[in-house]
Amino acid sequence: MSELIEKINETLSVIRKHTTENYPIGIILGTGLGGLVKEINIEHQIDYSELPHFPLSTVESHQGKLIFGTINGKKVVAMQGRFHYYEGYSMQQITYPVRVMKFLGVQTLLVS
User: Fold this and answer.
1) What is the DSSP string of 41-105?
2) Please, are residues 58 and 38 in contact by the beta-carbon 8 Å criterion?
3) Per CATH, is 3-111 categorized as 3.40.50.1580?
4) What pLDDT, in 10s, does the model give residues 9-62?
């Protein structure tokens, strides 16, 4: 098993303690769409700091939470806060949460 898959499985093991659902829609909430979180019927939320191998938001307005819930009856997982290359993260670190989302069943990804 590759090192990346092992890391993803470690992250998933923490997430699966909160939810065993699959989420077909992923949303990355940047500064522009941060308010969309108010439209989510939140079932679970996990601070990035609790997730192994997850980068941490350094932008003050980004909350740094992975949110699970529904919008209009559709299951969604949303990143409240994202990461940037200029913050010193590698491309693999920046894309890591999206890879985790894929393992959570995400088929459609909205990025703001």
Assistant:
1) EEEEEEEGGGSTT-----STT---EEEEEEETTEEEEEEES---GGGT--HHHHHHHHHHHHHTT
2) no
3) yes
4) 999 999 999 999 999 999 998 777 777 889 999 999 999 999 999 998 766 555
Note the pLDDT of residue 63: 73
**What is the three-state SS of 3-34?**
HHHHHHHHHHHHHCCCCCCCCCEEEEECCCCH
Question: CB pairs under 8 A, 24+ apart, for 14-17?
Answer: 14/46, 14/50, 14/51, 14/52, 15/46, 15/51, 15/66, 15/100, 15/104
Chain-centre distance for alpha carbon 53: 12
Q: Which two tokens stand for residue 99?
A: 């890879």
Average pLDDT of the residues in 74-93: 90
- Which residue from 49, 53, 45 is spatially nearest to 5, judged by alpha carbons? 53
* pLDDT recorded at residue 105: 98
